[in-house]
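Shipment paperwork, digital attachment
Item: protein structure file
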Amino acid sequence: MQPKPVPKSQQPVVAIIGGGVSGAGVAYHLARADCGGRPVIVVFEPRAELGRGLAYDTADPAHRINVPAAKMSLQPGDIGEFQAWIEARDAVADDPDAKRPDGMLFPRRRLFGEYVASLLKPLLDDGAVRHRRAAVTAVERRGGRWSIRDDKGGVTEADIVAIATSHPPPAAPGRLAARLAAHPRFVADTTKPGALEVIRRHDRVLVIGNGLTAADVIASLAQRGHDGPIAAISRRGLRSRGHAPVPQQLFGDFVSDASHSAVSLLAVIRVAIDAAKMQGISWHGVIDQVRAQGHDLWQALPITERCRLVRHLRPYWDVHRFRIAPQVEAVLDAAVAAGRLEILAGSLADARMEGELILCTLQPRHQRHQLERSYDAVVVTTGPAHGGILETQPWLAALASNGHLALDPTGLGLACTERSEAIGSSGTADPSLLISGPLARGTFGELMGLPQVTEHAFFVASEIAAKLRVDAPNPHPA
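Attachment content:
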């Protein structure tokens, strides 16, 4: 299928909203692509540099990449570029813990942001990419083009818009947020700079959630010298897994006879794990194969089965797929061994303040009796609230109310086609409005891990380049 042409001016303008890895990746690959001419590429990003985004702008030394550096790159065709970049600059000379005994590198997360920013810099210097250091406040359709307003008073007219915003913040349970909002050590959003500074060294801490963000929080507290007891509670009490001690080969074939239900897919994966074990291969190799074939697996599932998988199996997938760095795993293991970290399966039934104490009622999973516990601090790490993405930015809500955007039925982000074109409330796709990165997860399946995010950024850039080539104007002076 040929890409649909989009109305455009003589020198087309492509606006990318969000300058994290996803948005920066689209800009980088689009600037290097054959577009039938040189488009104007504008990236809206309030941060000082493109490529950092929320994940890679952290200065916390405890925050490390969760994938070995040898498997991270902005180039889908050269997965080792980041590690080569590190070695060429001796970039971990001041971070002796980055290199593991097996030679794998897990550097601090900020370093990957520096690498991406370095790739964008030449394109910014020669004007191939323009960084508009501002936050978008409104996006409207006017006369066949998009009009974008920002908080610096600027108005940009664009022919194509790519939405590449970051994950929405976690959503604290409404009752909890209302009851604890006034407490000085209720941390509802750990992504805010200095969010954990309010927690004192000996505080008793309740962490709501048990995924990657929870692991980051616990590691960060340890880095700051915190030695008080921590309880981490989630519905199933599943803790993020670590990497295999040695690399595991991929195992299994899940696409030749693809499953059409969540239950059958789970059964096939379990059989594969047992078979792999017989051959000395850990579950890591099976899950990595599922990830590698994830797009085809996802496409084989009807919408109802995708929703069922998200409801019932996503927590199990997340803790096996999104693994924590060895350094972080060691911190958690030490805390558990010392009795300072307790992993609980259940939910927070109620909470209230009594002076500086936070009195919590916990409901353990599969138990009738509740537990009454008191804490000095409560931290929410429930993960991105993808289902509430339209409420996080007024301009997104306005696009939805005007029929340009809609939530994906799975609740994982925004509805879009296999070409990443946004689907509006009418069910039709707009060839001039694209979704890049994790917000396209409902259509593409696995778009949370870094390798998949960069692959999708390359794909979206290729789609935009193809649209620009379809009816490119005659060559003209720049």
